[in-house]
Amino acid sequence: MNPNNKFWWFAAIAVSITIIIISCLALLFWQQLAPEEKLLLLSIIKQNFLYIFSAAFLILAGLGFALDGIFHVYIIPTSKLVEETTLITSVNPSHRITIEGSNNIMRLARIINEGADRYEELQKNVEQKMDLAKAKAEEEKNILAAFMSELPEGVLICNAEGRILFYSKQVKLMLAGADNIIPDSESGSDKARSGAGESFIGLGRSIFSIIDKNLIVHALDEIAEKLKRKQADISSNFVVVGKGNKLLRAEAVPILNHLRKFTGFIIIFNDITQQTEADRIVNFMLQSLTKSIRSSLAGIRSSIEAIIEYPDMESAQLHKFRKIIHHECITLGSVLNNMSSDYSSHFITQWPLVPILDQNLLESIRDKAEEKLDIIIDIEYSDDHNSVKVDSYSIILGMLYVLNQLSTEIKNRKITCKTEKKGIFVNFDLIWQGNPIKIETLRKWENQILILKNEELPLSLKAVLQYHEAEIWSNVCDGERDKSYLRLILPAIETYESENIRRITILPESRPEFYDFDMFSQPGQVPELDDRYLNELTFTVFDTETTGLDPRGGDKIISIGSVRIVNCRLLRDEYFEEFVDPERSLPFESIKIHGIRPEMLKGQQTIDKVLPLFYRFAEDTIFVAHNAAFDMRMLQINEAATGIKFINPVLDTLLLSAVVHPTQDNHNLEAIAKRLGISIVGRHTALGDAIATGEIFLKLIPLLAKHGIYTLKEARIASQKTYYARLKY
């Protein structure tokens, strides 16, 4: 119970008991009087009622003033003394107590301030020693961080639930949507902009919002199989489309703890757009070269055969054939010279494909077919172990598509599969009882886009086969007229171990010297947010600037600023800041407060374009705002027009401040910041106020813990009990 309330309860009970005692004594005295004495006493009271009433009123008033004086001199200062001492010992050692009260309380405040001076000095000495001790480690950490940030490859680290824990600068450049990250010409920084398919890259966000979940799941399944087989190379490769439709090769590597339990994964991205284009040019070159050489060789061969067959031909005819041979030789030389000069830079290249054993590929196809299509595949294993180079995701999806079409065509969900090496190729045979598939049907399958339940690849089966230099056809099994097969032919490669094997990343039992990997053990997103601790949650701290303070009267949002908090860290680089065209005039009174002029809003996007962006930025997080009722109301009045409904749980720093400092009279942003030792930069700008609110919220979390408030539910319930929660907009 609040100490103030305790005092008044005590005062009320004391006065009530006093009144009851006096009343009992008066009643006892009255009963002892004779009738004529009672009449005399009543007569005296009646004649002097005004004097008696005035005396009683003055006594009660004096008692009330005395209690009020005691309350303001002893009770309120004592409560403030407790609150402000907690401020000094928890979040703001520079805070000093200025209080009015009794001499003893003011003396106690001076003693606490003197102790605070010594405490702050000791703390500074300790911090200086810690800074010196950490200087070398911090220097090495910064070097490593800078190195990671400037790697030519994009590096992205996720926990087991797919939440992003680290990303390098290159990842943002590679994966951000074309309209997602646009340089800000004024600040020189990147800022979020609009776009229909907006996706944000940031700490704590899900990787599935920027990369197709099916690709990640396939990669992790492949890694799990390799771990089960105890293979040396346990990475998984796939291809994604990045910014500007660039082709990115992604290599996923697992992270295991010291017990070899899966705790996360690393994805390394390489831009293979130019490499793929070079491959396309080389293929075109080879086709052109083959065509040119074949034509010239045909002319040379026919001429030589004619000379050999007719050794006694006339000299004129012989000269004609020699001229043909000479011309075709010159043509061949010209073709080779042109090829050498025009395409020499394209010869040194490699396909974005990775080696895999034929049996491992078959087993992956079998497992996926049973899981997704309910098709049973019986593998006939051979003693040979052959390798092929494939993009496992696209080739497996292509084979699943073929299996689905095949089972529908032959009305059979049980198929035998085997592999066999023939020369420089590996044959993958799907065998069934019945007639072969017609060539027209195969060509129809090849020209269709690969769609399989909830998975889709924007390529046709023919494109995937061409990409792998593969062929597919159907025929009758030799010697078995009642059996047919569908054969996929892939180029074979020599079995070898890659020179660049990605090894498993295993975390030691004790933490590394410079990094805290406790983040890997953070819980993932779960529906039961109420029971989560505040320091575990991801928050979006936001603020709005408006044309005025009357949402019901037609005032509109003109600016939204927001920043994220992840793992109790304010991520200043992951921010959202947008001006909004309110499509109405801007009152001069509001301009004086926020400094946003009409010309700054001219040409900006309207609220129906900005709110969907902000919705994506704040997705799956808890809202934090100062005086949140007003900002939430400004968002809610736009629900009907935009179709965007914000259902994020909300915490209000105004209410939380009232929870931890109930005796303080002022809970505006400046007053709270001053109490907590926070400097506000950019006051009355949406982003500046959002950053200040975020810093305040982080300092309120330990103060809430001192009041026994740890979870989201406890914070919300405590907020609802404050006076300020009654304000409506």
Layout of strands and helices, then pairs:
Elements: H1 3-32, H2 35-47, H3 49-90, H4 103-149, E1 154-159, E2 164-167, H5 169-175, E3 181-183, E4 190-192, H6 213-229, E5 236-241, E6 247-256, E7 262-271, H7 273-309, H8 315-343, E8 354-357, H9 358-373, E9 376-380, E10 387-390, H10 392-410, E11 414-422, E12 425-433, H11 439-446, E13 449-452, E14 455-460, H12 461-467, E15 471-476, E16 483-493, E17 505-506, E18 539-546, E19 557-566, E20 569-579, H13 588-594, H14 598-601, H15 607-617, E21 622-625, H16 628-636, H17 639-642, E22 650-652, H18 653-660, H19 669-676, H20 686-706, H21 712-720
Parallel strand pairs: 6-17, 9-11, 18-21, 21-22
Antiparallel strand pairs: 1-2, 1-7, 3-4, 5-6, 6-7, 8-10, 10-16, 11-12, 12-16, 13-14, 15-16, 18-19, 19-20
Report on the architecture of this protein.
The chain has five domains: 3-103, no CATH class; 154-272, 2-Layer Sandwich (Beta-Lactamase); 275-346, Helix Hairpins (Orthogonal Bundle), CATH 1.10.287; 354-493, 2-Layer Sandwich (Heat Shock Protein 90), CATH 3.30.565; 525-726, Nucleotidyltransferase, domain 5, CATH 3.30.420. It is an alpha+beta fold and 729 residues long. Helix 18 packs across helix 21 (712-720). The strands form five sheets. Strands 8, 9, 10, 11, 12, 15 and 16 form a seven-stranded mixed beta sheet that branches. Strands 1, 2, 5, 6, 7 and 17 form a six-stranded mixed beta sheet that branches.
